[in-house]
Design brief:
About 30% of the residues are buried. This protein has eleven helices and eight strands. Helices cover about 50% and strands about 15% of the residues. The structure holds NADP nicotinamide-adenine-dinucleotide phosphate.
């Protein structure tokens, strides 16, 4: 994966470029970033990245091409570069809701396609990224996984689960943010100022997640450790459940899933 071209240097494209360099997976000079309005990423030029507003030219010498444009921009981008992409290249698409089958329909030659679904925490190297592939060898998939592993945690899944992954891990950022905000509001009501309350809520959320990620623990086991009989934690937790906390979360996730599947208008 010597030369990398990122088509669409917006939020995600720029975050991937910076993350690859920060994690020492690629040199800035080996990464070309394209967009129509290059002046908006002048700061990246100063970091050594190559810039181009000609997608065809940018794709030519790349071993890996990462598509980071909006879904509505995909057709024009792939009609433009579809005939330039060749068999030895790997095409990664981060575009939400677009299948590998649809991407391959724009390409003249059979090409390894890998679909990636990261989340916004990719900007700080903490993404949960799901990958699936079409016509990619085990090595090509492993090489791309290694790149995304440098930007967080990566899971290879079946393509049929890609929409579910979008809800759980990409929309999931918003769901956890809402919990942190609600906990902050509780903290403010108990007497902390907003800044202190947010720090305490966010650090506690991070601590809870790290407890699960760093050991083989289970949420219920960790809950049992902090719920003293007749204590304040179990009283609060049971009240949250009486108010439908778990049910609201599951229903919210399923509503997002129905929406992404086009079942809910
Ligand atoms: N943000 C995330 O964390 C996240 C997570 C998962 C998936 N995604 C997916 O990633 C994709 C990009 O999201 P984003 O948030 O980064 O969007 P964004 O900030 O709007 O970036 C899209 C970029 O594409 C460029 N672009 C448009 N047409 C182009 C063309 N013909 N050639 C080259 N560049 C072109 C735009 O710049 P110009 O207008 O200057 O060309 C823009 O900078 C979306 O499909 C989204 O669904 C994003």
């Amino acid at each position: 994966m010597k030369k990398i071209t990122i088509i669409g240097g917006g939020n995600l494209g720029s975050a991937i470029a910076l993350g690859l360099v920060k994690s020492k997976l690629a040199k800035a000079t080996d990464i070309t970033i394209t967009r129509r309005n290059l002046s908006k990423i002048n700061h990246l030029k100063k970091e050594g990245f190559r810039m181009n507003n000609n997608n065809n030219e940018a794709v030519k010498n790349a071993s890996l091409v990462i598509l980071c444009v909006q879904p509505k921009q995909l057709a024009s981008v792939l009609s433009e570069v579809g005939s330039s992409v060749h068999r030895k290249q790997v095409l990664v698409s981060t575009i939400t809701g677009i299948s590998t089958e649809e991407i391959s329909s724009y390409l003249k030659k059979k090409t390894a396609i890998i679909r990636a679904m990261p989340n916004t925490a990719i900007a700080i190297g903490q993404s949960m990224t799901c990958l699936c592939s079409k016509d990619a060898s085990a090595k090509q998939l492993a090489d791309v996984k290694r790149l995304f592993d440098g930007l967080g945690t990566t899971l290879i899944i079946e393509e049929r689960l890609m929409k579910a992954a979008t809800v759980l891990a990409a929309s999931g950022i918003a769901f956890f943010m809402r919990y942190v905000r609600a906990a902050t509001q509780g903290g403010i009501q108990m007497g902390f100022d907003a800044e202190e309350a947010q720090l305490m809520a966010a650090q506690t959320a991070q601590g809870a997640a790290t407890l699960l990620l760093s050991s083989e623990s289970h949420p219920e086991l960790e809950i049992d450790k902090v719920t003293t009989p007749e204590g304040c934690t179990i009283a609060g937790l049971n009240e949250m459940e009486h108010q439908g906390l778990s049910s609201a979360l599951i229903r919210g996730i399923m509503t997002s899933f129905e929406k992404i599947n086009g079942i809910k208008k």
